[in-house]
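Here is the promised in-class demo. Please do not try to memorize the tokens; focus on the logic of going from shape to residues.
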């Protein structure tokens, strides 16, 4: 990969406008920021983790960042291209509630089989707890990933099969916004501009 053009071409812009909620000016602006962070135009996992580390200097965001990286890297080539980056950012910052919930669901559904198991839920919550470190003051019944996951399953697993379907997750998240907030805007990577 050589040096990238410093601006998006008009056909790239057209393509990105059709699949994001950003306008031309915003896209060029984000592209400039993106290239500053990764001049060859693709973000590697270590670089992605480093961005999270800047935002959570007192925690260990590496594990959470690796889960998020996998969701951003839609074609699974081990890099986040600008298009992958901006599409994810569009959903997490400006998407509809259902789009955000779908995105969050895919993060919790680690093996992508269409259901969130208790183990998967514990994995992600553990990663979130590690990331925020001691920033959060947690009530007694939520102070371990297991307790938090049990509480969420009690609320969301309507048919008690110990798995959350997308519908259960969607409905449940609407009454417990923490689960989505924790992985979208509040903790998502925000590049400096
Ligand atoms: Ca699963
Ligand atoms: Ca269920």
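The designed amino acids, position by position:
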């Amino acid at each position: 990969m050589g040096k990238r053009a410093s601006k998006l071409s008009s056909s790239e812009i057209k393509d990105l406008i059709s699949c994001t909620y950003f306008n031309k000016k915003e896209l060029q602006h984000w592209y400039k920021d993106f290239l500053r962070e990764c001049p060859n135009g693709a973000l590697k996992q270590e670089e992605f983790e480093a961005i999270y580390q800047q935002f959570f200097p007192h925690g260990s965001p590496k594990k959470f960042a690796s889960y998020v990286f996998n969701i951003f890297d839609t074609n699974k080539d081990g890099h986040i291209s600008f298009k992958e980056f901006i599409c994810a950012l569009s959903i997490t910052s400006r998407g509809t509630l259902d789009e955000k919930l779908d995105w969050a669901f895919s993060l919790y559904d680690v093996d992508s089989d269409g259901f969130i198991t208790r183990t998967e839920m514990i994995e992600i919550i553990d990663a979130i707890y590690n990331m925020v470190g001691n920033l959060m003051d947690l009530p007694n019944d939520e102070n371990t990933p297991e307790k938090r996951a049990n509480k969420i399953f009690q609320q969301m697993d309507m048919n008690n099969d110990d798995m959350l379907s997308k519908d259960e997750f969607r409905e449940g998240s609407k009454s417990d916004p923490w689960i989505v907030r924790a992985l979208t805007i509040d903790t998502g990577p925000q590049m400096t501009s």
